[in-house]
Batch of 2 targets.
Target 1
Amino acid sequence: MTMRIYVPGDAAAVSVGADDVARAIEAVIAAGKRDATIVRTGSRGMFWLEPLVEFDSADGRVGFGPVKVSDVKALFAAAATHPRRLGLVENIPFLKSQQRVTFARCGIIDPLLLADYEQHGGLKGLRRALATAPGDIVQQVIDSGLRGRGGAGFPTGIKWRTVAGVQNDRKYIVCNADEGDSGTFADRMLMEGDPFLLIEGMAIAGLAVGATKGFIYIRSEYPHAFRQMGRALDVARAGKLLGPDVLGSGRTFDLEIRLGAGAYICGEETSLLESLEGKRGQVRPKPPLPALQGLFGQPTVINNVLSFAAVPTILAEGAAFYRDLGMGRSRGTMPIQLAGNVKHGGLIERAFGITLRDIVEGYGGGSFTGRPVRAVQVGGPLGAYWPTELFDTPFDYEAFAAKGGMIGHGGIVVFDDTVDLAKQARFALEFCAIESCGKCTPCRIGSTRGVETMDKIMRGERVVENIDLVRDLCEVLRDGSLCALGGLTPLPVLSALEHFPDDFTRDAAKAA
Amino acid sequence: MIRPARHAGPEAWRPELMRELAEALKHVDGPLLPILHSINDRFGYVDERAIPIVAEVLNISRADVHGVVSFYHDFRKAPPKRRVIKICRAEACQSMGGDELYDEVSKACGAGSDVTVEAVYCLGNCALSPVALVDGKIHGRLDTEQALALVRS
């Protein structure tokens, strides 16, 4: 039997040499005329081990990593004693303790082989949805407790019910794959490692609300994911997962992909719709809700990649299966992304309720540099900075909000003790200035004034008064902006001020 | 169906080709961004002379096209140099020395070099920071020496 050797084709793995390793393995196979083939999988999400090469064995897959080109020959000659040998991949503690639901297949299957997808539980949800009344599909998503994974946490099923309730000839399903938050990569990993799951979730959404057409809007910073998703759509069409006769049901659903153009604001749903229509990505006031007047003025379901990707499991395993995971009003699992200055960075999918400490110290193993961890930013550039004193906070929408933060899209960026939180607060305002769409004055101009004021603070000029000014400005940003960019930029600024005040006043003495 | 960009390398300005690119995509839903991407990919930038042509093909105003071109960071106003390095300047990369990487590479690739250095905010490889795209290819755990070797190779 042909031996299968697995090498991730994920962009992160490629960024540290996975393509070179795959070529080296190819050469060894060819030179030895071995009966072996390489499968380019997604990533398991243990990035410090990339490139992580896996071989089939009687007990399961055996991993080696991080593999360099110079390690490759010995992988064949002396695999049992290879210094990069990690043992069974599933037994690596980082992976073993996770609850992989959405990412159950990522890193395991060939992402572009529909048969592989189906063999590992794929299409069960869509088949069930095809045999279910649309109203019941929506009800199951409501009952699962799934909330939007893009950041806002709005109940997905309620959104769908609104769209389903509108009588209209044309409705759209739009996937927000404009994952712009620093520290996040789950959407990218999923599109590269298990793209059919997203397609399946969107097709189910189409059945639920009566839409036959969908769009996936992918940011241009993800060229790899964009190419992979394009290939997956071709395979899905050829395999009748998409098209005029979805899985032989006679029902229609098709998808197109669109490329963003380097604007963070297009991750905001109404900006994204404007951008899809070919306009400047400027925020629209709500109401009207996109559910009623969305893309091209038609009723539109717009959800994040991870929200759609959670749906096939809910349909396949039942709403109760999903709802029984998690805590409080945060149900199901959250793919948490651990990044930045961390020893073991990667994807951690767990039911809600795990503490920040378990994530950063347990999974992450502390900082990459070996210095003490001083702060983490959770939820992207609009998320709060957290000191280690708050690390017992459980990962939960409400628990995070209660402490003045948000979980956002689930990204955590770790900083060691060399970080200057005044500089980070300044950056939050600078980023807002760079990425503001310009619609709301506080965001467009206030952000620039904020940067200038932060510069004064950092030079030690009238520090107390200027800190007051920044607080005041943050209040105006929060209350006077239409969307989350202006509305939430105060979070990183004010949390840095609250938890790390010394970083702001340090220079006052210097100037005096 | 819109195809992923092919990295064929920039071509010299030709109005006929420009019109051809716009005509080829004018029937897709929301055609303006796909058309501008197609122009940006082929020529390396969106020349000002493209604006009236695209406006005419889509039957929209030149102001509308200009507004969109100027809104998005991806659409360059001038051709890039021979090599392009996009360095991430977002938080995860900052935590691993991304700012220093950006400053040092920018300094080394100043006037007279054949490298365009651009800032980008997150490439989704945040557990292997600092990260950059060199001519569209992603590289993680970069230091200045490696980055300069890549753009000079």
Note: Chain A has a mean pLDDT of 96.
Target 2
Amino acid sequence: MALLSVKDAAFAYDGLVVLSGVTFDVNPGDYLCIVGENGSGKSTLMKGLLRLVKPVRGSIRLGEGLSQDEIGYLPQQNLTQRDFPASVKEVVESGIRGKQLFLSHADRQRAQDMMDLLEISPFKHRSFMELSGGQRQRVLLARALCATGKLLLLDEPTAGLDPVVARDLYKLIEKINQEQGIAIIMISHDVHTAALYASTILHLRQTPLFYGKPDEYLNTYHGQCFAGGVCDV
Amino acid sequence: MFDWLHEMFSYTFISRALLVGMIVSLAAALLGVSLVLKRYSMIGDGLSHVGFGALAIAMVLGAAPLAFTIPVVVIAALILLRLSETSKIKGDAAIGMIATAALAIGVTVLSLAKGVNADISSYLFGSILVMSRDDVTLSLALGGAVLILFVLFYRRIFTVTFDEAFARATGLKAGLYNTLIATLTAVTIVLGMRLMGAMLISSLIIFPALTAMRLCKSFLRVTLTAAIVSLVSFFIGMSISYLLSTPAGASVVLVNALFFLAFSLIAKLRTRVQ
């Protein structure tokens, strides 16, 4: 049984189908990268996986004892709140889910472990908004890891970061995937990097154009085209 | 030297106003942090106008003021929240529309009603003479409930305020917490409205949060500082009002404004030193 199993899922807004025929499995330890142009249905699929929109056809099932609130999520950068007062520690700890109203000692320790893992402990008392873009993403990644031990959903994690910082973030994500065995589903524009780190690629344009291994993907028409080759779409 | 303090507390109506005012200031400051950060500050302002309209109608109908006004304003809060989340009309425009319409209804109703000894100015700018014993009891009960709910749900309120997309994704019912905040805000506004005035009550929501944000960088510190600033401002404002016979609501707002200026100045100096 897979962690996450999507079968022939379709999504629509106001009756208009924007994505259809999506089928894939994510097993423990997998690293799936979803690529595609703007408006290809990537974000819709992400919302579907998070149960924020319902598929109009097909199914999305969780397995391996994974429950919906155990999925860690890194939303797309959304910086409308530049003056939001929040310390790094507060942001990371807000990822801890559970019925209890206050944090236990074990919860705080878990948050601390995640901050150590992502090397953000040295500035845990600083204001989140005063950090650089790369530091901020690591804080949000730590928050997502507080919510899950099994599956991370990352929406354009390196958008707006300079190449060096982006590479460091990819390395961290790889480390989390390999050392913690946490499955990754990542939306990305960056096909080269996706091919470098992911174990599987899913290319969408309203419907899947490719689903398979990265090296095969780069040999396909769509792979070459999207990776910057010459093509007429 | 502090004889005036003793004297001030010897008036029952002032003690009542202080008691109700303190609990309203505290609740407004706590809720205000979340409202200001979610860009919902104007909801507080809109609700106070709706409260004015409802209060005027209650007055004319001879209904119990709080019992009539609270449900009306809670419903208005839920509508405003829905409007700012989903509507095709922009949230701020929707609030402006509802607020001015409610204000117009209130003024019209009060002027049409005959035999009602209604002083519009005391509704708009507050009066400390209006608290009955029952009002005080109800205010303390509801104000206490607001504080308890805020403390119990503090962690989730932070999560939802900071990042609604993440909160929803991890299974938190963000809509439920938005509704909770809107409802608590509505109750707080009605409780404080007659004391502070419909035109001035939203300052209790907006000022303390913004003042605290000048100097504090963590959510917990902002929340605690806002609460303290709000309580201190209210007490100083009421004392000034008593000593100088200035209007109570306006005095409290002016003290709040002075705190804001002082905190802004300290923040400026601090960045210059660094």
Note: The beta strands of chain A are 4-13, 16-26, 31-35, 57-62, 71-74, 151-155, 183-188, 200-204, 208-212.
